[in-house]
């Protein structure tokens, strides 16, 4: 049983303001809370039978986790740039993915909401469906046949996950009062809930795999198959190939520069559209768009 974790910071309990996201004493404290939530998820997963757990540090510098505080038996992907960014190293070898510390997409009412880059991205649509980080990252996991077993973050991020996967397990750790204020659980209570949910998610997957293997051995069906879509999910998610990404930038100058990229189509002052047969290729191209747009940002 192998569990992949992508960990962001904005959706961690107690984190409510931009001053906690970049540097300084408040940021150092937030990193410890983030590490504690990841630790809780790892402990829950291990308790329920996960033999391998890897955590991808997915916020800003991607060097936020306090490695010495993490429990034994976990590996960390740290730093950037890295292919697939927030979902670096996701592939078909994982049995289950967790998205931790999530925030809602740009333009939503969520706490600290944005989509990969508040400065450059106004809106993202994947195969016609408006997505933020939860949606795009979950699509990448789904494209690798890895179900997302747990999403944690503020209530708006959890709601966004439930829109896509109505049966998904979520833990809301805070409720926005505004974009930079929230009613929040304490770090200790958030960790308690996250550890319990992580254990439940892994236990459910272990039970499902055992059941699938039993059904396969009695019915002669091929073994080793996994559901791409968790039970109860809407049929259209994760999206199926070919993949179309519509990116609405915050300034036309960003679209001007991104339009130099091959295989892009300009569809408006700020809008670039790209189609790809493979989702990882589309996400890598999106990473290049973010880099280019950031370089010419006014
Ligand atoms: Zn972040």
UniProtKB/TrEMBL annotation:
Matches recorded under CDD domains: DAP_dppA_1 (cd08663)
Residues the record lists as binding Zn(2+) 2: 8, 59, 103, 133
Residues binding Zn(2+) 1, per UniProt: 8, 10
Name of the molecule in the record: Aminopeptidase
Record bears the keyword Hydrolase: yes
Keywords, sorted A to Z: Aminopeptidase, Hydrolase, Metal-binding, Protease, Zinc
SUPFAM superfamilies reported for this sequence: Dipeptide transport protein
Matching InterPro entries: DppA_N, Peptidase_M55, Peptidase_M55_sf
The keyword Hydrolase belongs to this UniProt entry's keyword annotation: yes
Residues of the active site: 114 (nucleophile)
Listed Pfam families: Peptidase_M55
GO MF entries: aminopeptidase activity; metal ion binding
């Amino acid at each position: 049983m192998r569990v992949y974790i992508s960990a962001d910071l904005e959706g961690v309990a107690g984190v409510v303001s931009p001053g906690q996201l970049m540097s300084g004493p408040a940021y150092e404290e937030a990193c410890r809370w983030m590490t504690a939530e990841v630790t809780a998820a790892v402990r829950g997963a291990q308790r329920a039978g996960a033999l391998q757990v890897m955590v991808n540090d997915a916020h800003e510098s991607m060097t936020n986790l306090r490695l010495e505080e993490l429990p034994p038996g976990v590996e960390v992907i740290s730093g950037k740039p890295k292919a697939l960014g927030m979902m670096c190293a996701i592939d078909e070898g994982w049995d289950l993915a967790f998205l931790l510390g999530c925030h809602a997409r740009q333009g939503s009412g969520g706490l600290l909401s944005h989509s990969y880059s508040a400065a450059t991205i106004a809106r993202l649509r994947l195969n016609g469906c408006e997505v933020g980080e939860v949606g795009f990252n979950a699509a990448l996991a789904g494209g690798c046949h890895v179900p997302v077993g747990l999403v944690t973050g503020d209530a708006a991020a959890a709601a966004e996950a439930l829109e896509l996967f109505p049966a998904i397990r979520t833990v809301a750790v805070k409720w926005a009062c505004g974009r930079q204020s929230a009613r929040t659980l304490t770090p200790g209570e958030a960790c308690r809930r996250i550890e319990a949910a992580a254990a439940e998610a892994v236990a459910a997957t272990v039970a499902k795999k055992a059941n699938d293997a039993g059904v396969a051995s009695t019915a002669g069906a091929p073994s080793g198959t996994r559901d791409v879509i968790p039970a109860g999910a809407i049929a259209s998610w994760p999206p199926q190939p070919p993949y179309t990404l519509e990116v609405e930038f915050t300034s036309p100058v960003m679209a001007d520069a991104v339009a130099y990229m091959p295989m892009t189509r300009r569809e408006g002052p700020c809008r670039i559209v790209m189609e790809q047969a493979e989702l990882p290729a589309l996400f890598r191209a999106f990473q290049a768009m973010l880099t280019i747009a950031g370089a010419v940002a006014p």
